[in-house]
């Protein structure tokens, strides 16, 4: 009996010791996880090292299920931050298998599925991820946890961004921000805000983007969250580049590089060094460019994204050019150009390879290939510039439509806006799938239709870029291009061209007396007169607030004077109505001159503007032309010298309004 009690006591002592050791291991495991959590977004490299130690030593022991799930959640998050999607997928799948049968781990399960979705976005599978996120969002409503909802919407925003659906991405992020603000998680709010700032950079919403990014950067800096600082700095550098401030962009990239070096982040170091080298090449600092480019050589094999690989190849080829190693440049560039022949759309650096090849051929005195390659470059670059201009206009329109939709529906939440946009996107997808089905039957017809659609889009945006938004007439940019064509015809067949410049008399008084909406009606009414009465080949444009310029092909000066007199009479006969119902009329003064093939648009404008000014000085509502005889030029000069101070100020005022109009037209 005594021996039995002794054995029992010994067993209890051993069991208690083993239990105590197990508790200590669990506590140590949990403590390490807490440490990883605290540095997850600050030093992800160190966080990965701590998790690796856990895997080697303590993870083999039986740990509580919640801690194991938490471990895999943190591991998948770190792998994502370090741009390792394959490892993130493995970790997320393991965590999902562990958590899927425990109802108490529902929130962790959703977060794990989100990490899996983020990893697939990095692998280019965002279309599949979006369908899964919709199901996840519907299921997560049972949790009633706004932080989980915010995380799901954040990932939706990332997926739409990867698809270049920036408007839907912004709506998803705004909806995510709404959900996050109902929690006490300031870190989540700032993560979403910084992502929103990056989207606004892409949508050319520069002022709002700058405000959000500055605020997020200060938040992460105060909390020493270096990795998030790095991501925000990269968006700030992109913002500076888009605004044309290369000096500021260079400064932002250099600061981001310092953070990446502290973090030991090789992937971001490679990309940032490339961006700095590219900016230095553009600024002509080739010596510094070569130094930064050298830093990328050891990191090249880690990169998988085509954009950065193409930039690396472009910079390496330029380095060979600078060293006058032309054959090496050709050897590098030729297979790259061949390999990208089947790509539907090229990056700028891929197009620039044609220019590098042309310069290299020229350096080797192979002028024929240099010329042919340069022609290829010009054709591709022209197409690229046109597409880029259309993309920029479309993105600005996206931002405008979003703000308009929200402003018109103040009672709607951003979640409603997101659902509206997604519904529209789904309708577009259904329509696209229908087109694909038809394409299988009549592929040739659909290809033709697609080509026509693309052409119409370019024509539409080209028309927007070349017309005045108020009157629908052409603008100064289009006028300049048409003048070049007319001058070519003048040089080839000697056909005459004349120019009219007219200005509505006392237009400022109309605006001041009746209001700007009535003034706009006056301008649109005169524009309609031009559209209906001018010949098909005549070019009419609005070049100032109340100024219009006309180019008249195949017209001698005498014909142009008759046309001007006819237009002057018709304008004076137009009747306009004030907002109170009172009728009034306006008049216009004209300057008419013949165009010489050697003159630029500025020269022509200067000549005809002087004639218009003379018409104003001689009483307005009249036509002055360069062909009119002046019996006493000295008397005319004396009269001009004696012009009243009020008239001079009037002319100065017209010039200022014209300048203001051109600035407004340019920035619209």
Describe the structure.
- This protein is mainly alpha-helical and 668 residues long.
- Helix 8 runs antiparallel to helix 19, helix 9 (186-202) packs antiparallel against helix 10 and helix 15 runs antiparallel to helix 16.
- Helices cover 74% and strands 5% of the residues.
- Mean pLDDT is 81; it is low at 15-21, 630-646 and 661-668.
- It has helices spanning 2-39, 44-57, 65-81, 85-99, 106-122, 126-140, 146-162, 166-180, 186-202, 206-222, 226-242, 246-263, 266-283, 286-294, 306-322, 326-339, 348-363, 367-408, 414-441, 443-466, 476-493, 507-514, 516-533, 557-573, 601-617, 633-641, 645-667; strands at 497-504, 539-542, 547-553, 576-577, 583-584, 588-594, 623-625.
- The protein is built from 27 helices and 7 strands.
- The strands form 2 sheets. A 5-stranded mixed β-sheet has the order 2-3-1-6-7, with helices on both faces.
- The chain is globular.
Break the fold down into its secondary structure elements and pairings.
Elements: H1 2-39, H2 44-57, H3 65-81, H4 85-99, H5 106-122, H6 126-140, H7 146-162, H8 166-180, H9 186-202, H10 206-222, H11 226-242, H12 246-263, H13 266-283, H14 286-294, H15 306-322, H16 326-339, H17 348-363, H18 367-408, H19 414-441, H20 443-466, H21 476-493, E1 497-504, H22 507-514, H23 516-533, E2 539-542, E3 547-553, H24 557-573, E4 576-577, E5 583-584, E6 588-594, H25 601-617, E7 623-625, H26 633-641, H27 645-667
């Amino acid at each position: 009996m005594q021996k039995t009690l002794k054995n029992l006591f010994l067993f209890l002592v051993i069991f208690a010791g083993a239990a105590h050791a197990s508790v200590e291991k669990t506590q140590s495991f949990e403590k390490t996880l807490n440490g990883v959590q605290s540095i997850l977004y600050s030093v992800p490299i160190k966080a990965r090292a701590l998790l690796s130690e856990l895997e080697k030593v303590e993870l083999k022991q039986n740990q509580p299920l919640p801690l194991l799930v938490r471990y895999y959640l943190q591991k998948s998050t770190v792998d994502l931050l370090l741009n390792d999607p394959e490892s993130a997928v493995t970790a997320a799948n393991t965590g999902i298998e562990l958590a899927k049968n425990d109802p108490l781990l529902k929130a962790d399960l959703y977060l794990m599925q989100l990490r899996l979705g983020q990893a697939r976005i990095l692998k280019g599978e965002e279309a599949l991820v979006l369908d899964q996120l919709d199901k996840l969002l519907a299921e997560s409503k049972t949790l009633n946890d706004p932080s989980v909802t915010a995380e799901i919407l954040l990932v939706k925003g990332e997926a739409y961004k990867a698809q270049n659906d920036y408007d839907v991405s912004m709506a998803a992020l705004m909806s995510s921000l709404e959900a996050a603000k109902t929690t006490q998680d300031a870190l989540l709010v700032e993560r979403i805000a910084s992502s929103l700032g990056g989207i606004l950079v892409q949508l050319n919403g520069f002022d709002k983007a700058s405000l959000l990014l500055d605020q997020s950067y200060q938040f992460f800096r105060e909390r020493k969250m270096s990795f998030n600082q790095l991501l925000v700095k990269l968006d700030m550098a992109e913002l500076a580049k888009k605004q044309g401030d290369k000096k500021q962009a260079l400064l932002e990239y250099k600061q981001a590089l310092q953070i990446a070096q502290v973090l030991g982040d090789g992937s971001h170091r490679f990309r940032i060094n490339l961006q700095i080298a590219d900016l230095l090449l553009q600024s002509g600092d080739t010596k510094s460019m070569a130094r930064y480019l050298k830093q990328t050589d050891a990191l090249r094999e880690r990169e998988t994204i085509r954009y950065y690989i193409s930039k690396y190849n472009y910079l390496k080829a330029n380095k060979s050019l600078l060293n006058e190693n032309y054959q090496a440049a050709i050897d590098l560039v030729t297979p790259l150009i061949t390999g990208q022949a089947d790509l539907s759309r090229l990056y700028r650096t891929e197009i620039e390879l044609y220019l590098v090849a042309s310069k290299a051929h020229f350096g080797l005195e192979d002028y024929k290939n240099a010329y042919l390659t340069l022609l290829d470059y010009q054709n591709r670059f022209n197409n690229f510039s046109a597409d880029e201009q259309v993309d920029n206009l479309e993105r600005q329109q996206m931002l405008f439509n979003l703000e308009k939709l929200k402003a018109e529906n103040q009672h709607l939440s951003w979640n409603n806006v997101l659902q509206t946009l997604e519904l529209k996107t789904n309708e577009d997808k259904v329509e696209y799938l229908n087109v694909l089905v038809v394409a299988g039957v009549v592929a040739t017809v659909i290809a033709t239709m697609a080509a026509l659609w693309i052409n119409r889009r370019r024509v539409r945006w080209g028309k927007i870029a070349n017309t005045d938004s108020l009157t629908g007439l052409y603008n100064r940019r289009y006028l300049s291009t048409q003048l070049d064509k007319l001058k070519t015809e003048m040089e080839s067949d000697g056909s005459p061209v004349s120019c009219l410049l007219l200005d509505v008399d006392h237009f400022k008084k109309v605006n001041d007396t009746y209001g700007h909406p009535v003034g706009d009606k006056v301008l649109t009414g005169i524009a309609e007169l031009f559209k209906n009465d001018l010949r098909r080949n005549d070019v009419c444009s609005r070049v100032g607030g109340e100024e219009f310029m006309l180019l008249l092909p195949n017209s001698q000066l005498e014909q142009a004077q008759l046309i001007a007199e006819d237009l002057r009479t018709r304008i004076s006969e137009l009747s306009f109505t004030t907002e109170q119902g009172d009728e009034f009329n306006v008049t216009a003064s004209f300057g008419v001159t013949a165009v010489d093939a050697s003159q630029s648009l500025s020269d022509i404008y200067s000549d005809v503007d002087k004639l218009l000014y003379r018409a104003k000085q001689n009483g307005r509502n009249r036509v002055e032309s360069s062909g009119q005889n002046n019996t006493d030029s000295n008397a005319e000069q004396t009269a001009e010298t004696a012009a009243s101070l009020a008239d001079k100020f009037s002319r100065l005022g017209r010039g200022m309004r014209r300048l203001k109009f051109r600035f407004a037209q340019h920035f619209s």
